[in-house]
Amino acid sequence: MTKYVSRWAAMLAAVALAFTLAGCDDTPTEGDSATDGSGFVGSYSTKDTQGNDMTVTLDEEGSASGNRAGDDLTGSWKDEGSTVTITWSDGWVTKITKDGDSYSKTAFKDGQEEGSAVPAEKTK
């Protein structure tokens, strides 16, 4: 009798595990991708290290594009909580940090901060 109870208990546990795993859905939904967790997807207006106008656009796929002093920029970005780190193809790194309702931008070249933080405005 104990042998049959053990088998039934094992089968029930296996069925329960199967239902639990079947209910897990790792498919991201809109607004739930790895890069869109903090709402950084969109466009920003800011200044470069020389004080010239700069735009940055971050898409849902983790790609970044921008324009700085007439030069088109391409790169990728990663959400790091309240900061997004953008790695540009030319070696520069831009960080946009959200603090409450405002944003700031810092730039890095060869791992060293260039200039100081400047305001950034989310335009889209």
TrEMBL record:
Annotated spans, Disordered: 26-80, 101-124
Signal peptide interval: 1-24
Name of the protein described by the UniProt record: Lipoprotein
Keyword Signal: yes
Native organism: Methyloceanibacter methanicus
Keyword Signal: yes
Biased composition (Basic and acidic residues): 101-112
Polar residues: bias regions: 43-55
Keyword entries, A-Z: Signal
